[in-house]
Amino acid sequence: MKNKWFIEPYITKQEQKANKALDVVGEVIKSEAKIRVPVDTGNLRGSITTDREHLAVGIGTNVEYAPFIELGTEKSPDGQPFLRPALDDNVEKIQKLFTRLMSK
What we know:
Elements: H1 4-36, H2 43-47, E1 49-53, E2 56-60, H3 66-71, H4 83-88, H5 91-102
Antiparallel strand pairs: 1-2
Helix pairs in contact: 1-5
């Protein structure tokens, strides 16, 4: 591409801004999930983390029983969701925050 030298620094700068914004958004969702998670020993709450890779952020836990709490079981089919609601209930807030951070 003939003009790649001109476009590349702009793309890189935008990607850096997006990654920083995703870090902030990920922390917001993680904080919400930690507020919502049911607590017995605190192990599940303490295990909630963010993991950002290039232009993506994940919020989750490595605790083996987390899916049973989030999604439910035969005995408790509704579960006690904490990850999905942390995102779903804050979509508008997250969109505004992301937009604001990208416009800086």
